[in-house]
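Entry 14. Ran structure prediction on the chain below.
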Amino acid sequence: MLRDFEGEDAFEVAGPCSAEALQALFGPLFPADSMVAVDGGDGWSPVAWQSVLASGLSAGERVRLPGIPVAAGPLLTVMARLLGEDGCPWDRQQTHTSLLRFLLDEAYEAAAALIAQDWEGFWDELGDVLLQVAFHSVMEDPRRFDAVVLRQVTKLIRRHPHVFSPEEGQREDPDTVMAQWEAQKHREGRRPPQAEWVLPALVWAKRASRRGIAPQSEVYQRVRALLEVYRGQDPDKLEEILGDAGWAVAAAGAAWGRDAEWALWQAVAHKDRPGVSRSAELNPPKAR
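Output, structure tokens:
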């Protein structure tokens, strides 16, 4: 891989390389009508990628591919093309907000395939999740994806001192490691909560509770007290207790003709963000 080819990363392949080998190695990674640069010894010239694939490379010839042929390179190349001046009209009109529903949907679909142990489906859905990451990144700046990756790598190294700086961290057991992770997150500081109303009601309620926000009603106090009783009786079954309690609330809502998820969402909104509307800031695009 090379740097500073017209200010961007570039990847060169040198001949001799047969058309068959070139097609097998790099052919499927980039659109056939992409433009590449070929040097036959007298300087670089623009050539259609499909022409190079058809003829291969002779000894002394070099081709600079339309993108980096590893990792997310081909995906970023295609996304840049879709969002370019002659790209897809639907893709070009999207915004971060209009794509929100797809970001959420693809994550849920990947989770569904995983739980079903549909592994081929899971790998496919992970690709759809990756597409959303690339889409959000490239629409702002072709280099934004690199910045997203760098930020995540830096964060992982910083939060795993027991691996990357053993003298600073302990790795005796998973609980110790998790405590170190949470301590590092605390040192980094938390971003102020924003637009949490787009979250599922249980997730929002959990986050609001961590900030000390909770109902003061008799119903809330009695249910919490009852759960404490069950926790004291069988502390090894906390998730089972919480699951059954949540199911009981959902079943009661169904029996009474009410949506427990919506009821909880409204309760948290009333306490945490009075007056907020779930549809106030979202304008989802039409389905493709």
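The CA atoms of residues 215 and 255 lie 23 Å apart. Will compare against last week's run tomorrow.
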